Amino acid sequence: MKNFGICLLSLILSLCMLTACGTADVDLQTVFDDINSQFGIEGITVIEDVAKLNRYYMIEEDTVEQFAAEFSAESSVYKEIVLVKAVDEASASEIATLLNNHYQSRLSEAKSYNPESVAMLENCSVEQNGVYVSLIIDENAADIKAVYDSYFE
Known about the structure:
The chain is α+β, with helices and mostly antiparallel strands. Helix content is 52%, strand content 19%. It contains six helices and five strands, in the order ααβαββααββα.
């Protein structure tokens, strides 16, 4: 009976370790489409080519496994959603830094030229969840983030 208890405990601990090791494998295009349909986001530029992530955010192509992104081409409109799955955690940290630098630049720009947008921007953020990194800038950022986070539960 003692050996059975030890084996059962070992099995339970092994299963816990396997489920806690990483985040779910999430299709970012599915998340992106869900966000756009739920929040009626339209009229903004979709980034379809990973090379353009470098152009807009300085993210190197070889650090990205998958992504979905869009932004307003109008400089006075603060609306950006960038969802990235990096190739590894080191790349994810680098991407998070680059997106945070971009976010801080947008916030600084708003403080100088568009002060009525500052409060909204201050409620936005860059977040990293394992190899996944997100930048969500939108008046509905908290709700959009909740949808995004639901894919990792």
